[in-house]
Write a structure and sequence with these properties.
The complex is a heterodimer of chains A (about 70) and B (about 650).
Chain A: E1 13-15, E2 18-20, H1 22-43, H2 53-71
Antiparallel strand pairs in A: 1-2
Helix pairs in contact in A: 1-2
Chain B: H1 12-15, H2 21-43, H3 49-58, H4 64-92, H5 96-116, H6 119-137, H7 146-170, H8 177-199, H9 206-217, H10 220-225, H11 233-261, H12 266-278, H13 283-291, H14 295-323, H15 339-363, H16 369-383, H17 388-414, H18 420-437, H19 443-460, H20 470-493, H21 499-515, H22 520-524, H23 527-544, H24 549-576, H25 584-596, H26 599-612, H27 618-633, H28 638-645
Helix pairs in contact in B: 2-3, 2-7, 2-18, 3-7, 3-19, 4-5, 4-6, 4-7, 5-6, 5-15, 5-16, 6-7, 6-16, 8-11, 8-14, 9-23, 9-24, 11-14, 11-23, 11-24, 11-27, 12-13, 12-14, 14-27, 15-16, 15-20, 16-17, 16-20, 17-18, 17-19, 17-20, 18-19, 21-23, 21-24, 23-24, 24-25, 24-27, 24-28, 25-26, 26-27
Classes of the chains: A mainly alpha (about 70), B mainly alpha (about 650).
């Protein structure tokens, strides 16, 4: 019935009784993960293996965000 | 011999040169980001889509790194501002006068914070006041809507930031570090030329020297912006910071070298410099041979070698910046902040806001909260402007231009249109034109274009659906003009601290720091880092000084304080562990003379050291050199010395 898609139950972000959109929690979590990965990318000399490093990092952000939204 | 400031003044042809391809690319990116932000805001049905467009206008900078750091601080400052707005509204909403007083106090606090920081941190402090203006002041008649307004503004700002980041990444906006690297290399060349000149005994013009310190320390906010640019951003930022601090230290050492050069005959100086610059593996022996006997020449040789070493370390840091590597030794660049100047700015802003609120209260016009919002925004922006009065003049020029452009877009080009593609096309000429103007070389034109872009978007206030109400548009324009007039009037009724006042405070603080022993924080900092903080103060002195003879004398006086502080630190560190072979009594006398800042006693110790023997070991030469430089920089009447030195 759902076309084979994973039925992801979105967790709501509740701050002191105030409901905030779940997308905000995923976006902040993704940002934290990407920032934590930055030193690792620097050590691996990530910029030398891609043509446009900022665009590649943006793609990484979008990928992690999608994974968090689907499976978190 | 004076050293003139390098570079010719920019003529008309330079200031109004046709835009380059890079400028066109930047202008196109600004327009695309604005269109994308508006589209996303309309699709998400955000309450204030204009804030998303305004965010793209504010984050419109040519390079990625600058925009990203500003975006981070924009989010943090918005969150802090929303919390402040909620707190102030909750506490004072029942009392009109106290509520306005609280807004005035918050505006003053943000202006105080803006003067304590630099770059995007100062912008974040100012944004705290702007956020309260948008969220709380505009909801002054409906306090229950403050929370929703805060959330709406936060959401719109996030959408705007994402749009700018996406467009910059997809369209390959240039990195910022090549620009910073080019500026640092150019400054490195200037400092090296200064050092070569000082090594030959030339004493460059104090105002030109102060300008060089100011040019180096002005890069501090740009260097910090490198950290957010990419995965190697932290390494590049550390390398740039180390190079910047190294340049300041090299400049201070070069000034000490000029003092020592006066005591060495020209022929011997040239031999020493030739050996130092040759930099052979046997350099130490060759340099000592060239210096010959006598501690004066040995001290000169020691200092020249130190200047060259510092120059080489700076070159290594610049190479690390170019390669995206961390420097071998990381240095911090502490910020110099004058709490007195910041407090004066805060009090002035609070009083100007209170004055504007009083005038608007007496006028009793409806919807004048919009005018008060504009006043708060302009006071916040003025607090981060180098010249608040100059900012008021720029606002006076930008306001009518913005009203004209917004009116043409809304009522001539669009005139009732409700489709998004037409809105995007209607925005294109104005946004691209103003963004192109922002890449001009004329600072005044850049400032006018930037503020015109921001005010135009604010007045246009794109929404879905658009109201096309000429009455509300005219009221908005009227209140913008009134706000500019109130801010302009406030600058004269409650004038901010002028350049002379800032000079007085900075000089007083420089003398106060000289009299005090090294404090806890200074002990933890390296000598280079403390020198950088003093150089930051020197940069602020250079910015506050005018062209008159008295101001030039005060710049020379401030430079004398910087020289003395650097020389005393160098000498105290050299004599903390006395050189081998120096009698203990002489070492005690040196430390005591340095602690008392007694030039005659320091000179006597140096003379005794020279007379004691023919020892020219490196550490004895270093100790002698530091004493000679320290004695030369301590003057009994710095103000008189400043007037003598400055032409």
């Amino acid at each position: 019935m759902n076309g084979g898609f994973v039925n992801a139950g979105f967790r709501e972000l509740i701050v002191d009784g105030v409901l905030l959109a779940p997308i905000l929690a995923y976006a902040i979590a993704t940002l934290a993960i990407v920032l934590a990965l930055r030193p690792l990318l620097h050590r691996l000399r990530f910029r030398r293996y891609v043509a446009n490093a900022p665009l590649a990092e943006l793609c990484l952000y979008v990928s992690i965000f999608g994974l968090l939204t689907l499976f978190a | 011999m004076t050293t003139a400031a390098p570079g010719r003044p920019a003529g008309l042809a330079d200031r109004f040169a046709p835009p380059t391809l890079a400028s066109w690319a930047f202008a196109l990116r600004v327009w695309l980001a604005m269109v994308l932000a508006l589209y996303a805001a309309f699709w998400l049905e955000l309450r204030s889509p204009a804030s998303a467009a305004l965010t793209t206008a504010i984050l419109a900078v040519p390079a990625r790194g600058q925009g990203l750091e500003k975006a981070v601080y924009r989010i943090l400052a918005t969150a802090a501002g929303v919390v402040a707005a909620l707190s102030i509204t909750a506490a004072f909403t029942q009392t009109e006068v106290l509520l306005l007083g609280a807004f005035a106090a918050w505006t003053g606090l943000c202006a105080y914070g803006a003067k304590l920081f630099d770059g995007n941190r100062a912008y974040a402090a100012a944004l705290g006041a702007i956020t309260v203006a948008f969220v709380a002041v505009q909801e002054i008649d409906t306090p229950g809507g403050v929370f929703d307004a805060g959330l709406a503004r936060g959401a719109a700002i996030v959408v705007g930031i994402l749009a700018v980041a996406f467009v910059n990444d997809v369209l390959a906006a240039p990195d910022y570090y090549p620009s910073v690297l080019a500026k640092l290399r150019e400054l490195h060349g200037r400092v090296a030329a200064y050092a070569r000149s000082a090594a030959r005994g030339d004493r460059p013009d104090p105002v030109a020297t102060a300008g060089l310190f100011a040019a180096i320390t002005a890069l501090r906010p740009e260097v910090s912006a490198l950290a957010t640019e990419s995965s190697s951003g932290d390494a590049r930022s550390a390398a740039a910071r180390t190079a910047m601090v190294g340049l300041v230290f090299e400049l201070c050492a070069a000034r000490g070298l000029a003092i020592l050069a006066a005591a060495v005959p020209a022929a011997r100086r040239e031999r020493v410099l030739a050996e130092v610059e040759r930099g052979s593996s046997e350099n130490g022996v060759a340099v000592s041979r060239a210096a010959g006997s006598g501690l004066a020449a040995a001290g000169y040789a020691w200092m020249a070698t130190r200047v060259l070493e510092r120059d080489l370390r700076t070159t290594e840091a610049l190479d690390a910046l170019a390669c995206g590597e961390s420097p071998k030794r990381m240095l911090k660049a502490p910020l110099y902040r004058s709490h007195r100047i910041a407090l004066s700015s805060g009090v002035t802003s609070a009083l100007q806001f209170a004055l504007a609120a009083l005038v608007l209260g007496l006028l009793g016009w409806p919807a004048s909260d919009l005018c008060l919002t504009f006043v708060a925004i302009m006071l916040a922006l003025a607090s981060i402007a180098p010249d608040p009065r100059g900012f008021a003049r720029i606002a006076l020029l930008s306001a009518p231009l913005s009203c004209l452009l917004a009116g043409i877009i809304e009522f001539v080009i669009l005139d009732g249109v409700s489709e998004f593609p037409q809105l995007a096309l209607a925005l294109a000429p104005v946004v691209i034109g103003l963004a192109l103007a922002m890449t001009a070389r004329s600072p005044a034109l850049v400032a006018i274009a930037r503020f015109s872009l921001i005010f135009t978007v604010a007045l246009l206030g794109p929404s879905n659906p658009e109201s096309y109400d000429p009455e509300s548009f005219l009221v908005g324009c009227l209140f913008l003009f009134l706000a500019v007039a109130l801010v302009f009037l406030g600058q004269y009724l409650v004038p901010p601290l002028d350049g002379r006042g800032r000079l007085d405070i900075l000089l007083a603080e420089a003398h106060r720091d000289l009299r005090k022993p090294r404090r806890g924080g200074d002990v933890r900092l390296a000598r280079e880092e403390v020198a950088f903080r003093d150089a930051m103060r020197m940069g602020q002195v250079a910015a506050a000084a005018g062209a008159g003879a008295e101001d030039r004398a005060r710049v020379a006086e401030a430079l004398g304080c910087l020289d003395q502080a650097a020389a005393l630190r160098r000498a105290e560190d050299a004599w903390a562990t006395p050189p081998a072979g120096v009698p203990a009594a002489l070492a005690d006398a040196a430390r005591s003379a340095l602690a008392r800042r007694d030039a005659a006693a320091i000179t006597a110790v140096a003379r005794a050291l020279d007379d004691a023997g023919s020892c020219v070991a490196a550490d004895a030469a270093a100790a002698f050199a530091t004493l000679v430089v320290a004695a030369a920089t301590i003057v009994p009447n710095p103000a008189a010395a400043g007037r003598e030195i400055a032409p």
